[in-house]
Amino acid sequence: MLGLSAAASIRVCNELGVGHPRVAKFSVFVVTGTSILISIVFTAIILIFQVGLSKLFSTDPEVIETVIELTPLLAISIFLNKNQHHEDHELNGEDLVHGV
């Protein structure tokens, strides 16, 4: 996901340098939307396969139950962290776009 952030930052900076603030703003929306979509997919996969993932690493019922209880926190963490990198990089460039 950091590669996507780097590519978006370069795209935004290039568009701002050429004088196309609206294209830069659209690029930010596209990358943020893509990041949110990827985060939703990974979060759904983790939540759907939480029992299978817990059994993959342990056969102890207590460990399996604990992993199942903690899996929603992992899913939330993945969702929030995947979006943070993009917004952090892009907002620095977007701050230069005044009046868009």
From TrEMBL:
InterPro entries xrefs: MATE_fam (IPR002528)
Entry superkingdom: Eukaryota
Pfam families: MatE
Transmembrane segments: 26-49
UniProt GO cellular component terms: membrane
Keyword annotations of the record: Membrane, Transmembrane, Transmembrane helix
GO molecular function, one term: xenobiotic transmembrane transporter activity
Residues making up the signal peptide according to the UniProt record: none
Family of this protein: Belongs to the multi antimicrobial extrusion (MATE) (TC 2.A.66.1) family.
Protein's name according to its UniProt entry: Uncharacterized protein
Species assigned in the record: Rubus argutus (Southern blackberry)
